[in-house]
Amino acid sequence: MGAPRQIERLVERYDEQREAYESGQYKETEIRVEFIDPFFKALGWDVHNEQGYAEAYKDVIHEQALKIGGATEAPDSCFRIGGVRKFFVECKKPSVNIKDAPHPAYQLRRYGWSAKLPLSTLTDFEEFAVYDCRVKPGKNDSSSVARVMYLTFEQYADKWDEMASIFSREAVLKGSFDKFAEGARGKRGTASVDDVFLEEIERWRDLLARNIALRNPDLSQRELNFSVQRTIDRIIFLRICEDRGIEPYGRLMTLRNGDRGYPRLCEFFQRADERYNSGLFHFQGEKDRAETPDELTLTLILDDKVLRDILANLYYPESPYEFSVLSADILGQVYERFLGKVIRLTTGHQAKVEEKPEVRKAGGVFYTPDFITKAIVRHTIGPILQGKTARQVAKLRFCDMACGSGSFLIEAFQFLIDWHRNFYVADGPQKHGKVLYRAGNDYRLTTAEKKRIVLNNIFGVDIDTQAVEVTKLSLLLKVLEGESQESITKQFELFHQRALPDLGSNIK
């Protein structure tokens, strides 16, 4: 079929002014708007949402990139089908040597690997590189590692049919993208992010359990399990908030220097209590709080060496993780398996991590795949909400009686967020200024409205207390999606409300 005329014109124009584009003056935003967006539009993608789809179903999401610590903390664009991520596109200005420079490739692969995507693309229009994001990124990797396709703009016309057969919207819908991804799968180094992160936090658990048991000989087995789990949850929460721009980037990293690491970490936890109001950080008794405060973990003794070891692999460039794109679904898969083990104290007060008897009997932990969770929620909650108003939906309660790590509740909460936003927009956004705000060309629910929905509609029960805490953690991170340090601070100043709900009465 050959390249469409608009692609030929883009190639001709770039070739004519190549020297100007390759100068350092030409910026990433300019190359994206003038060349890369039209390129993907020619592939059939609704790059600027001309169809007017709701936020949840847009083809392309242009991420709000955060410049943190000198690095961009979000991919430039996310291409989706039916709201499901398929691949990232990271744009660079033409003065960057995509073929040989290792940093841009490492950056893109961290995004794709952390989001558990098979492929993603790095381009400045002059060059177009595709990477297998199932290969765990390493900071010393060359730019060619995991690269499965490389083209220059001079090849676009001749190679257009091949590119369109993989990356066009139609090709993705028909499964050609997935077939190419499967054929491009490398046999070496394809450890998935959930497997690697599970190993990471299991190592943390072992380090913390042994050291806390050694330095705090009066702890009971229940107290030890609680202390270790809560410390891991808090570190993960704060680290994700850093990459999302909600917490100052690099704050946890400062604990790697100097002494008194754990007391300083506890100061961060106490500040988080003042800021977020969630049960995850709850150290003092307060009126109308369902749960008793944590009077244990702030008194613990923990060696600096252990804390430094845990924090060593959480920051760029050592870290392969990009926490800004690490979804609640992936965290749920990790925690579901993580909770299959428990810490036992020996008669000599030494900590041993063992598989739970019920897990051993069942032959392991099994996690419900994401697409099944989405389908069940869509076909159960969807019909119930049909034809109702927001006021009527406020009277409904959705409960998972064996919630585990919360996969169904997280999906139900997301479904309700999308439904409320669409209802308010269709009803007239000007009527709902207290619960809806404008973000670029889109509307989003305020944090206060998301808090209201989760407290009003979402409930869960589980016999495993650790699983209950993981469900709360995932729901809290879902409430904070799309927020920034500025929006959280502004809300506190205007309404004297802390950012997060206390889910102690909802998830038990």
Describe it.
- This protein is an alpha+beta fold.
- It folds into 3 domains: 5-184, tt1808, chain A, CATH 3.90.1570; 193-360; 368-505, no CATH class.
- It is built from 19 helices and 14 strands.
- The chain has helices at 5-16, 18-22, 28-42, 102-114, 156-167, 169-174, 176-184, 193-215, 221-243, 261-276, 304-311, 328-338, 357-362, 370-385, 390-393, 407-427, 447-457, 465-479, 485-495; strands spanning 60-62, 67-68, 71-72, 77-81, 84-91, 119-123, 127-132, 147-152, 341-345, 351-355, 398-400, 436-439, 442-445, 458-460.
- The strands form 5 sheets. A 6-stranded mixed sheet has the order 1-4-5-6-7-8. Strands 2-3 form a two-stranded antiparallel sheet. The protein has a two-stranded antiparallel ribbon with strand order 9-10.
- Strand 5 (84-91), helix 4 and strand 6 form a beta-alpha-beta unit.
- Helix 8 (193-215) crosses helix 9 (221-243) and helix 16 (407-427) runs parallel beside helix 18.
- The N and C termini lie far apart (59 Å).
- Residues 64-72 have low confidence and may be disordered.
Characteristics:
alpha+beta, 508 residues, 14 strands, six-stranded mixed sheet, 3 domains, 47% helix, two-stranded antiparallel ribbon, tt1808, chain A
Largest sheet, order of strands side by side?
1-4-5-6-7-8
Number of helical runs? 19
Helix % is 40-55%
Look at the structure and give the mean pLDDT: 87
CATH architecture of the largest domain: Alpha-Beta Complex
Whole-number radius of gyration? 24 Å
**Major sheet size, sense and barrel closure:** 6 strands, mixed
The name CATH uses for the topology of the largest domain is tt1808, chain A
Report the span from N to C terminus: 59 Å
Structural class computed from helices and strand pairing: alpha+beta
Assign the CATH class of the largest domain: Alpha Beta
Count the beta strands.
Answer: 14
Per the principal axes of the C-alpha atoms, what is the gross shape? globular
Percentage of residues in DSSP E strands:
5-15%
Question: How many structural domains in the coordinates?
Answer: 3
Spans with pLDDT under 50 lasting ≥5 residues? 64-72
